[in-house]
Amino acid sequence: MSQTLYNPFTDLIFDPHFCFLSGALTTEKMSVFPKWLMDHFNFGDERIEMMDKEKSYNYEDLELPCSLKVKQAFDAIDIKIKAAYEHGYEGMAALDELLIFQWTGRMVYGLLYYEMVYERNRLLKTGEEFELSPALQERFSNFHLMLQSIIEPISFEGKKPWSIVVFPLKYSADIFSYRDDAINLMFSFGVNGFGFVACLQDNGVIKAKHTEVLEKIEGHVLHPVQFEELYARFHYSDYILQYSPKYLVEYNVDLISIAVKEEKEPLFGFWNEDIYAQLLSNYWGVYGITKDDILQPQRPTLSFLENPYTKEFVNPETIALPF
Fold first, then answer.
1. What domain of life is recorded for the organism (predicted)?
2. What's the predicted TM-score (pTM) here?
3. 224-240 and 273-284 are packed helices; what angle lies between their axes, rounded to 10 degrees?
């Protein structure tokens, strides 16, 4: 085994002739979003915007250059995820978290790849140099390395580098909901039967922060408005997280091991209810709930997960909003 693996973030290489994951020369391509998922929910011809809202693509047109080996590896994961999906929550909850990380990572990295290419091309037109901050370069490099566990013998020792939460969820059968934040490496996915929230590079600290509410959720089938609130809590927690995940990476003869390196206790910045309410209103807009509804003078912040006054879990069956 090579002592180092391909890292496109070292020299910021995002070339259509090189496999996005292995760096091998290739003419093959794979879709960013699994084809079976686009076909099942019929969203391939819908549009997705880049972060600056200036550029958009059809979902089905988002493709990554890949080697045949990489394509076959992702196809194999797709088969396992699709089989689990067909068994609803029980099927997904039984999956190894690594499979969910890899499957989710394909979509998150694919969107990140397009953001990198778009930003590089935009700067080239103005004669500016495409650069990433050292912090982003390190974060994306670590994520890319971990995603290579699909094709390389990589083991994760001890504490996992991600927070992944799977739970029962009640959506109408034809509804599919997902949200992503490629820069912060976050993803949420909700359908009829189950949902999951994934923070792909936080070393589990965001899940640990919300242990109390996650324990309250256990045993309940969430209403979609609760699912959106949970993701908003995770997303905002990531925003205020003052912590740079570090890892010990060991290259052995036939195995690469990755272990979380705990240098200091993770810290969260001040939780600003005004900013959080604005974020949450973006997710609750489909219900007609505005920021002013969430944050009213002399009242606690609106929540459908916990009673704002008693902190007791809100029974999903008592929520009158549509699903």
1. Bacteria
2. 0.93
3. 140
